[in-house]
Write a structure and sequence with these properties.
55% of the residues lie in helices and 14% in strands. It has an 8-stranded mixed beta sheet with strand order 4-10-9-8-5-6-7-11, sandwiched between helices. The chain has a 3-stranded antiparallel beta sheet with strand order 1-3-2.
């Protein structure tokens, strides 16, 4: 008798031993019920029984042989119930998510949230899950600051799905990137998509720390250099302080435009000025590259462009020239600092 549902263990048996037996039955046209090889071991017996239960082998009453059946005639009997179970689980998962979202709103707006104003979150998966849940709970505003330039395409795909849902709920979203993010095709595509839904995105020349603020009720910031530890902040005074820092950076930032010569010239000038500042302050190349959100190789290219611009050969000469002479200006700034 055919069962109503089948699980992963059944599929594993069908993929291995049962598949070989079925292929043998198709080649021969049948399997004999008294074939001793069908009883060699427990796994083979289990495979035969599974093929019969599913209906891929059917007993011919006239001659007592097990004959193969076309899989397309019985596929729906197995797949449709699994699909229905999957749909039911997805719907139930959504109901649970909505319930936890409502409970989260109750917690964050209650005095109890002030008891633990800061919570540590350990592990990248746990941090991502926390951020995903917090953004899904958002109702009014999302503020995000994403440093280090380019972000992986798969990370942006997950973020876009989550952010677009929030925007379509009426959530206002503002995001800060570093200027170097403009040279990432994946980031440009992401920005174009969320901007079409109403998000605002700007870029800044200087380095900043990652920040996510949800409805001004919870803020998430990194607590370690490798981002494996984060802290969730619920204290309203601390959140207000972080929002003030964000707003000051936002005012200095340039709107993220996908085209426009003047905007590109302004950004190139910002990058040039920041490179000179980092050079004068004596930061190492890796540290300077990190602050600009570019690779060390790209940063070395910026320094080379400055040497060329000032007509010098060494960094010592460059430092002296920047302090005492005007640049020759034989290159445009946007050419020198185009990543």
């Amino acid at each position: 008798m055919t069962r109503s549902s089948y699980g992963p263990e059944d599929r594993r048996v069908l993929e291995t031993t049962a598949s070989h037996l079925y292929a043998r039955a198709v080649t021969q046209g049948f399997l004999r019920t008294d074939d001793p090889s069908l009883c060699d071991d427990a796994e083979t017996e289990q495979a035969v029984q599974l093929l019969i239960e599913i209906g891929l082998l059917r007993l011919d009453e006239t001659d007592g042989l097990l004959r193969p059946v076309d899989p397309t005639t019985i596929q729906a009997q197995v797949v449709v119930p699994l699909t229905m179970q999957g749909s039911e689980l997805i719907a139930e998962s959504a109901r649970w998510s909505d319930l936890f979202s409502d409970l989260g709103q109750v917690f964050r707006t209650s005095p109890q949230a002030a008891v633990s104003p800061i919570t540590e979150i350990h592990g990248l998966d746990n941090i991502d899950n926390f951020i995903h849940a917090a953004v899904n709970d958002s109702r009014q505003e999302l503020l995000t600051a994403q440093p280090h330039g380019r972000r992986p395409a798969n990370t942006l795909a997950v973020a876009e799905n989550r952010d677009v849902k929030a925007l379509r709920r009426g959530v206002k979203m503002r995001t800060l990137y570093q200027h170097s993010a403009r040279h990432s095709p994946a980031t440009r595509d992401y920005v174009a998509d969320i901007a079409a839904e109403g998000a605002e995105v700007r870029t800044l020349d200087e380095f900043f720390r990652r920040l996510i603020v949800v409805d001004r009720q919870v803020a998430v910031v990194p607590a370690s250099d490798n981002h494996h530890v984060a802290i969730a902040i619920y204290d309203k005074s601390l959140i207000a302080y972080l929002v003030d820092i964000f707003e000051r950076s936002w005012e200095r930032a340039q709107p993220f435009t996908l085209s426009g010569n003047q905007a590109e010239r302004n950004i190139a000038a910002d990058v040039r000025a920041m490179t000179i500042r980092l050079l004068v302050e004596g930061h190492s190349d890796p540290a300077s590259a990190k602050r600009l959100g570019v690779s060390t190789r790209t940063y070395a290219g910026y320094i080379a462009a400055l040497k060329d611009e000032f007509g010098v050969q060494t960094r010592f000469q460059l430092g002296y020239a920047m302090g005492s002479e005007q640049p020759s200006g034989h290159r445009d700034a946007d050419e020198d600092f185009d990543d």
